[in-house]
Amino acid sequence: MTATKGLEGIVAASSSISSIIDGVLTYRGYNIDDLAENATFEEVAYLLWHGKLPTQAELDQLIAQLGEYATVAPAVIEQIKLYPKDTNSMAALRTAVSSLALYDEEANDMSVEANLRKAVKLQAQLPAVVAAFARIRQGLEPVAPKKGVGVAHNFLYMLTGKDPDPVAVRALDKALVLHADHELNASTFASRVTVATLSDIYSGVTSAIGALKGPLHGGANEAVMAMLEEIGTMDNIEPYIQRKLNNKEKIMGFGHRVYKNGDPRAKHLQKMSAELGKITGNTTWYEMSVKIEELVTGQKGLKPNVDFYSASVYTSLGIPRDLFTPIFAISRVSGWTAHILEQYSDNRLIRPRAEYVGPTNQKYVPIGSR
Ligand code: ACO
């Protein structure tokens, strides 16, 4: 038995949800470029869960359900009030999502209907939890969700207490479409491993949030913004990047395990970053990002991934840096839950083997003789 480090190249599941073939990303057979330009996030969530685009009536019903389910159990809001104000936002989200299960009477109902309903509940409640956490830590009360609007609109509304600008809604909606699913990425794999023991959907999503938190996965978008802020000015870019590359340190937002010729999602975020920069009158973060890309791609051949231009997009939308990865989760929960439903539909315990490389033939030595 020989291990493949990081399971690189290992095909670990069959799935009909999303595919990456020759660098092209599709959700249920629809090219991501087509969906990014034309679909709303709610249409995409429906597509991921049901395998087909919704009719107008089905979409209206989903939006109504999302509004109905978006109210978070008061006990969970009370718990969030007890979290340390400076706690890590992904740790807060992970803890709150785990708590949501305690107040859902069908949390352990494994029927197909209940699991699909819980997928919609999780999709509705993650944005509400993130917005509530963001307000509570500032000493503000959470804002009750709005009915009849999409996830992007409702999230910005619950975050600020004001109806957002349509340009901001469309930009966030597109970012949510682009992040919704991505084949067997680390967090999706974590969720499938968890539920393959026939554990519940909340446990699967909680595992996924834990996996998304790391800077090699979803945490990279926040790390990109930290880097842009640390660099600060155009003049500092070249020495900063050069130093990092010379020290063999990673530049956040570049490289990908699967895409070696570029992440198809990045160009949409780059375009959005440029447009939002113009609209807000601050193109600095965008221009700095372009310069970093020129240097990193020029010297290392590494291309930006989905996280790189997300950082300047979310900053232009006025979103605090440490909410970037929670926003990733707000979108990816659609994909996680679609994969969890798929795993349940044809389940087998996921239990690979390890190549043992430790000592052998050891003999027990009594504690007094060690
Ligand atoms: N900056 C500098 N060098 C890099 C980078 C980077 N961002 N990414 C890869 N490399 C280099 C490595 O140092 C390594 O070089 P070497 O062969 O000389 O040692 C080589 O490219 C291969 O890199 P690995 O880390 O082995 O590639 P792997 O497939 O394991 O990792 C990953 C992919 C984790 C995305 C990596 O590119 C990385 O750490 N990027 C920065 C973090 C990031 O942006 N993560 C978000 C990914 S997208 C997502 O999850 C949503």
From TrEMBL:
The GO terms describing molecular function are: citrate synthase activity
Listed InterPro entries: 2-MeCitrate/Citrate_synth_II, Citrate_synth-like_lrg_a-sub, Citrate_synth-like_sm_a-sub, Citrate_synthase, Citrate_synthase_AS, Citrate_synthase_bac-typ, Citrate_synthase_sf
Q: Which SUPFAM superfamilies match?
A: Citrate synthase (SSF48256)
Q: In which pathway does it act?
A: Carbohydrate metabolism; tricarboxylic acid cycle
The protein's annotated catalytic reaction(s) are:
oxaloacetate + acetyl-CoA + H2O = citrate + CoA + H(+)
Keywords assigned? Acyltransferase, Transferase, Tricarboxylic acid cycle
Q: Which Gene3D superfamilies match?
A: Citrate Synthase, domain 1, Cytochrome P450-Terp, domain 2
Q: Which family does it belong to?
A: Belongs to the citrate synthase family.
Name of protein: Citrate synthase
